[in-house]
Write a structure and sequence with these properties.
Layout: E1 10-13, H1 17-29, E2 35-38, E3 50-55, E4 58-63, E5 68-69, H2 74-82, E6 87-89, E7 96-99, E8 105-108, H3 117-134, H4 148-152, H5 156-163, H6 167-181, H7 190-200, H8 203-207, E9 218-220, H9 225-233, E10 239-240
Parallel strand pairs: 1-2, 2-10
Antiparallel strand pairs: 3-4, 5-9, 6-9, 7-8
Helix pairs in contact: 1-9, 3-7
Family: Belongs to the flavin monoamine oxidase family.
Domain Amine oxidase: 17-91
Organism: Desmophyllum pertusum
């Protein structure tokens, strides 16, 4: 990454997919724009990363961060088409493995593992409740939600303990939040979580791979990280600090 002190028109903080997309769109509309991208790491990508790993036939590039796209992500799909990046279906059939906190390993092929009746009831009630709550948060301006102040002042962790009865139900929420957001429920507000769900199309669409248009619908050939590398390569004249 280069480094020099000079006057620029725009400073973009972060060389993840959002920062690089912003820089790319700015330069498309105003090629004369002088901009700089600030990034703390020695690579681009942010939450998108990859690594070369050994395979049966040699080696291949594997995603280490965000890796799925779906038809609901209009801007991302448009960008992939513009960059001529191929996608392929996520394989969703076959055996699944769940390793719970009590060190029990369960293998299953149905949408849900073999849970106790109480855990299934808990999961059903949680799904019903969260699907309805997220609809109360306006997509365009979540601050106008009737319960905005209350929900923004409460972590998802607090709500979890108030609303989910079984340990298995809590573990499922923890797992999904860790995979989708890369954090724990204690690190986000209930309002943020509900707003995200409403934008994405609801809880079920991000966890149920049997639904049409689910969040893990497609993967990107060559890894999702490749998209940020392609974007960085098109930012001609842009300096990275």
């Amino acid at each position: 990454m280069a480094a020099s002190l000079e006057s620029v028109d725009v400073v973009i903080v972060g060389a993840g997919i959002s920062g690089l997309s912003a820089a790319y769109e700015l330069l498309k509309k105003r090629p004369q724009t002088k901009l700089v991208v600030l990034e703390a790491k020695d690579r681009v990508g942010g939450r998108l990363d990859s690594a070369e790993l050994k395979t049966a036939k040699g080696s291949d590039r594997w995603d280490l961060g965000g890796q799925w796209v779906c038809r609901n992500q209009k801007a991302v799909m448009s960008l992939l088409e513009e960059l001529d990046v191929e996608i392929y279906n996520q394989w969703c059939t076959g055996s699944k493995v769940m390793h719970s906190s009590d060190d029990v390993v369960t293998t299953y092929s149905d949408p849900l593992p073999a849970l106790s009746y109480l855990a299934l009831l808990d999961l059903w009630w949680f799904t019903y409740k969260i699907e309805n709550l997220c609809q109360e948060v306006p997509i365009d301006d979540p601050s106008t939600c009737l319960h905005a102040a209350e929900w923004d002042g409460m972590t998802l962790e607090t709500w979890k303990h108030q609303s989910i009865w079984t340990n298995m139900g809590k573990e499922i929420l923890d797992t999904v939040v860790g995979i989708v957001f890369g954090v724990t429920p204690s690190q986000m507000s209930l309002l943020f979580f509900l707003h995200y769900l409403h934008c994405a199309g609801g809880w079920s669409i991000i966890v149920d791979s049997h639904l049409k248009g689910h969040a893990q619908e497609w993967r990107i050939k060559g890894t999702a990280h490749k998209v940020t590398e392609l974007l960085a390569g098109r930012l001609e004249g842009t300096e990275f600090f």
